[in-house]
Design a protein that fits this description.
By secondary structure, the chain is mainly α. The protein is built from three helices and no strands. It has one domain. This is DUF2277 domain-containing protein.
């Protein structure tokens, strides 16, 4: 149905996750949970709203995470 959602935080990603990366992960999550690759017209609005809500929550999570040792790794 959809590929695995990848880790979006350093050091798993060499650079900061983009808005597109975050939205793609949110879309994959909603597809997996709903069981629909593409929703029917009568479910489109709630599907898109879920993607936006999850993308926003993901961005907030990534912004708030403290990655210990990240500075030390970059200095090497």
């Amino acid at each position: 149905m959809c590929r695995s959602i990848k880790t979006l935080r350093p050091p798993a990603m060499p650079e900061e996750a983009t808005e597109a990366d975050i939205r793609a992960a949110a879309l994959q999550y909603v597809r997996k949970v709903s069981g629909f690759r593409a929703p029917a017209a009568h479910n489109q609005e709630v599907f898109e709203r879920a993607v936006e809500t999850i993308a926003q929550a993901t961005a907030e999570l990534l912004d708030g995470l403290e990655i210990r040792g990240a500075g030390a790794q970059r200095a090497s």
